[in-house]
Please model this.
Amino acid sequence: MRKKLVVGNWKMHGNRAANADLLAGIVSAGPLPCDAAVCVPFVYVADTAVSLAASSLRWGAQDVSAHEQGAYTGEVSAAMLRELGCRYAIVGHSERRAYHGESDALVADKAKIALGHGITPIVCVGETLEQREAGQTEAVVKRQLSAVIHALAHCAGEMVVAYEPVWAIGTGRTASPEQAQAVHAVLRAQLRAATAQADSMKILYGGSVKPDNAAQLLAQADIDGGLIGGAALKAADFVAICRAAT
Ligand code: PEP
Model:
């Protein structure tokens, strides 16, 4: 049985005082029944590393450069993140694909460099509403995942995949458990064709997961946890989602 993983994506929210309260609220809730992590803005990585040094709550970044080092103004490398103890890096979030023009190839490069530095990439895939309505969901997510599978080759089994339908992110509109499970099953089958580790890999669902819908979503056979945006900004909600994951 795969242990569930719940990851908070803070996006561009927070400040030092609010972050400290949020982390203290999660940690003070006591042991969580699943693996859990928070992905914080780069500028708060160092604070978070110190705050969580003695905690089982892990932390990650929301992006990583596709380059090792060099003249890439504004970028943060996998080596820099790893030096501070980073465990996860979200790559290919739909907001980065949409607002920063990130291609499947770039996302694959980012996943590869993260893994090369011991950081588990959380690879986001998902269709827009237009693509869903055009019956393209399966083709879109398979294309997005395929680029990463090829780049990671024999290490493909080490990534975490997150299915995040774009129309469900931050909209309050969630995929039904059945809709989400159907896409997760497609992704699992694609992973099985690529790696012997597919059945132990985690495929997270993301898109307006809240305490009141988490249990049903996370009970699906191929949903191994959640990537949580808005609800990860309240300690009580994040903890409630983690508790619903069992
Ligand atoms: C996300 O940003 O990855 C996300 C799923 O956001 P929300 O939970 O707010 O829809």
Q: What stands out?
A: The longest helix spans residues 177-194. The domain at 5-244 is CATH 3.20.20.70 (TIM Barrel). DSSP finds ten helices and eight strands in the chain. The CA atoms of residues 37 and 58 lie 4 Å apart.
